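User: Before I run my own analysis I want an independent prediction to cross-check against. Here's the chain; please return only the structure tokens and, at the end, one sentence I can use as a sanity check.
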Amino acid sequence: MLAVRANLVKYTGNGRRDTHDIELELSQLLSRAVIADGLLDVFQRAGFQQPDIAVLSDQFLEEVRGMQQRNLAIETLRRLLNGQVKSREKQNIVEARRFSERLQEAIARYHNRAIDSVQVIQELINLAKEMRASIRRGEELGLTDDEIAFYDALAENKSAIDVLGIGGIRELAQEIVRRIRPLVTVDWSVKENVRAKLRVEVRRLLRQYGYPPDLQQMAVDLVMEQATVVCDRWSS
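Assistant: Structure tokens:
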């Protein structure tokens, strides 16, 4: 909590305002964005326990954009977006890393005075909208949440899309999910033989679908990393 308070002081005037007032104001602002099934504990939600990016409605984003206290608006957006990144790490590591990097870059550029408060707010709002749209990509591609996570892992190498096409990557992602599900057990993560079998299966599928040979090792490593996240959830 001390780290949060220190961060708020930095964002809201180098300590000239009372930190209790800052927290109260930020809590009230966040609460207007996180109303579903009654008023939720916004700090629990912003504290990385399954935050829902759907709370960042266009209406709320416009309200944040129009705030006079721009530093408070920036911190509000940063908290909510960072919460979404933490949540997505449990589902889709590639997507989470991509958005995390962009969030960190935007904040770093603001701190380095490469962009001003108005510009960073706009960048964060754009990022929020892209996060919302990204969640719907699975529906557009006809993939489940797990399948889109493996799709992203396979498509991280852009040249693989050029070779297999979107359809090929989609089919490969679906096949990987279908093949690895039977291998998942409660203690799968500590069974090296199961992990080794899964790695062999992924390599075989990549060769079968014509995944670029020079990119296969990187793809295997990324798919296995994603598999760890997915399988941990399945086994629990």
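Sanity check: Residues 1-15, 33-53 have pLDDT under 50 and may be disordered.
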